[in-house]
Write a structure and sequence with these properties.
Elements lengths: L4 E6 L3 H22 L7 H6 L6 E3 L2 H16 L9 H6 L11 H9 L6 E3 L5 E4 L12 H15 L4 E6 L2 E5 L7 E6 L7 E7 L2 E7 L4 E4 L2 E4 L14 E7 L2 H24 L5 E8 L2 E6 L18
Antiparallel strand pairs: 1-5, 2-4, 3-4, 5-6, 6-9, 7-8, 9-12, 10-11, 12-13, 13-14
Helix pairs in contact: 1-6, 6-7
The protein binds adenosine-5'-diphosphate and magnesium ion (MG).
Magnesium ion binds next to strand 9 and helix 7.
């Protein structure tokens, strides 16, 4: 998945700890084999190049993951949508970057959206409906992998662990020593912590548009696209989501970055199960805003007050 996974576990003995970690990495390898769009032999890569109109038989696992992604796509009004592949191509986000013409953008928008894939409700098949459509799993693959790694660790008898997958952290455990303090970085200066979160039995995922950008003709183009407009999300700041399920945290941080701080805050205020923190860049300053559910995770610092 193009990043680093670090796992630390508390185990009865060294051999047991190492075996548990091995099983977690094997679980992640399995998810990579299902979801990676960076290799040709993954299951998703085969669906992504399937002939248009021909039903493809999926594993029950991939089918369930795509249904889960579709659920969160609907729940976020289409802000989260892994079927943005045609737009990734139009903006050449996997190459040097490009500003598409109006015609190219219109064509890519037509080929965008989970509606371009027919997922059966009864069987485990999917049909690709447009020659330019493909599923980009970058917005949820890491979260799914973390969830499966945690399942493997628990299966191996581990009750307390810390996992960090390219910045997305999962703190497993319910004991007194299992709290993990996670810094939330400044949206522009990654090494500078703006706030800290206290996690236990939860995962924190951050999405920002300032992290990986290409510069095309003087314009900065980020890697997160608004499927509704076809445009890259403007670099307004970052979103951190805390949830029990790391896949949900991953999907929602991407979705809320697309929704933006206003619509995103309205969406987040209605949810009591996920903590949401927005860091807004305003005139060189950073304004934090969070929903009520986030309050349980913020390490209180007297200089910070709730806004919005
Ligand atoms: P990161 O991978 O940096 O942790 P995210 O979890 O926010 O960041 O995922 C961003 C990735 O999600 C993009 O690189 C792309 O592969 C994919 N993506 C881009 N736009 C969307 C979108 N609107 N919905 C779902 N996935 C998206
Ligand atoms: Mg994400």
């Amino acid at each position: 998945m193009g990043t680093t996974l670090r796992i630390g576990v508390a185990a009865q003995d060294r051999a047991g700890g190492i075996a548990a970690i091995e099983s977690a990495f094997n679980a992640v390898r399995k998810i990579d084999g299902l979801l990676s769009t960076w290799r040709d032999d993954s299951e998703i890569a085969q669906l992504n190049r399937a002939p248009v109109g021909a039903p493809v038989r999926l594993s029950g696992e991939l089918h369930a993951l795509l249904r889960e992604a579709a659920h969160w796509s609907r729940a976020t009004g289409g802000a989260f949508d892994p079927a943005v592949g045609a737009l990734v191509d139009a903006w050449d986000l996997r190459g040097a970057g490009r500003i598409p013409s109006a015609d190219q953008l219109a064509a890519a928008s037509v080929a965008t959206g989970l509606g371009r894939f027919a997922l059966s409700d009864t069987g485990v098949t999917a049909v690709r409906l447009d020659a330019a459509a493909w599923l980009d799993t970058g917005g949820f693959g890491k979260g799914v992998a973390l969830r499966e790694a945690a399942r493997a660790l628990r299966g191996a008898g581990i009750e307390s662990a810390i996992l960090n997958f390219g910045g997305q952290v999962l703190a497993l455990g319910s004991g007194a020593g299992d709290e993990v303090i996670v810094p939330v970085a400044h949206p522009l200066r990654r090494s500078e912590a703006v706030l800290r979160l206290r996690l236990q039995g939860r995962s924190a995922s951050t999405s920002s548009q300032s992290e990986r950008t290409l510069t095309v003709g003087g314009r900065r183009v980020g890697h997160i696209l608004d499927p509704r407009s076809g445009e890259p999300v403007p670099p307004w700041g970052s979103v951190t989501v805390v949830a029990r399920d790391p896949a949900v945290a991953d999907m929602l941080s991407t979705a809320l970055l697309v929704l933006g701080p206003e619509a995103g805050a309205r969406w987040a205020e209605r949810r009591s199960d996920v903590g949401v923190l927005f860091l807004l860049q305003r005139d060189g300053r950073v304004l934090p805003r969070w929903n009520r559910a986030m309050e349980a995770f913020l390490v209180t610092e007297t200089t910070i007050s709730r806004r919005g």
